[in-house]
Amino acid sequence: MSRLNTNKLSLAYGTRRIVNELNLSVPDGKITALVGSNGSGKSTILKSMARILSPQSGAVYLDGKEIHRQPTKEVAKQLAILPQNPTSPDGLTVRELVSFGRYPHQKGFGSLKPEDLRMVEWALEATGMSAFADRPVDQLSGGQRQRAWIAMAVAQGTEVLLLDEPTTFLDMAHQIEVMMLLEKLNKEQKRTIIMVVHDLNHAARYAQHMVALKQGTVLYEGNPVEVMTPEMLRVVFGIDADVIPDPRTGTPMCLPYGLAHEGLEEEATGAAGIASENKQRTQEAEPVGAVG
C-alpha cells in the first residue's frame, strides 16, 4: 500500500487538460522517477501532489486523506517539495535558507526552538553543507546551491520529498553530486523520493521505480529493467535506441541513435490499452485512499 496515491486525477491549465484520470501509487521508501517528453505532465503531477495545483477532478491522497482538503501546514509536515530553479534573496546564508524548512513546525512568527535548531544542523550535516552554513547562497557553485535547497527540504523532517528536475542546468559532476545525495537520503533515512528527471540514464541508475508518461497518461510503470526498453523509448520519446546493462551497476542504459517515426501511433495505442487494463486492475484491487 502507498502513503501517496492519486485516484482518477485530472489536471488542467484553464481549459487545456494536461492529465486525464491518473491512477498512480508511489512506492513507500523508494526513489520514483517520472519520465516523459516535454509537456507530458510530469511537473504538473508533482505540483498537484504537493498541493500547489488543484485537481480539475479526482484527488490526491496522503495517508488516505484528500491532500487538497488538508491545511497547508499539516501537509508541509508530511511532504516537502523542491520546485524547478528556486531563488533566494541576495545575501541569505545557507543556514538561514535551511531554517525556512522549519516554518511548518512553528506557531505564528515565533523564533526557532531547540528542536528546530537541531534539525537545521542535522540537515546541513546530512547534505554535506555544514562547512558552507555561513556562506551566502548566491556565492555557491551550482551543485552546492542545489544541495542547500535540498537541505532546506530535508529540514522539514518529512518522510516524502518531491523534486522537480533537481539537476537542471547543472554540469555533469554536479548532477552526479545531487543524485548521489538523493540516493544517500533514500538508503540511509528511508525517504520516499519522487523526482522529475530528464536524464533517462540517471533515472534508471538511481530510481527503483520508473513511471513513463505521454500526454498525461501512464504508459509504462515498474522497476527500471521493466520500463527502460527500446519499445518505451520509441513510444514515449520517439527515438530509436538500444538498451544495454550499465557495465558497473547493471542498470539499463539508453544509447539513442536517431528518431523513430514508423509505427509510433500503433504502438502508442497498444501501450495505452495496456495502461488502461492496468488502471482497471488497480482500481479493483486497491480501495481509494487506502492507508499504507
TrEMBL record:
Topology relative to the membrane: Peripheral membrane protein
Superkingdom per UniProt: Bacteria
Location of this chain's protein in the cell: Cell membrane
Signal peptide: none
InterPro entries: AAA+_ATPase (IPR003593), ABC_transporter-like_ATP-bd (IPR003439), ABC_transporter-like_CS (IPR017871), P-loop_NTPase (IPR027417), Siderophore_ABC-ATPase (IPR051535)
Keywords assigned: ATP-binding, Cell membrane, Ion transport, Iron, Iron transport, Membrane, Nucleotide-binding, Transport
Chain ranges of the ABC transporter domain: 4-240
Protein's name according to its UniProt entry: ABC transporter ATP-binding protein
Organism in which the protein naturally occurs: Cohnella thailandensis
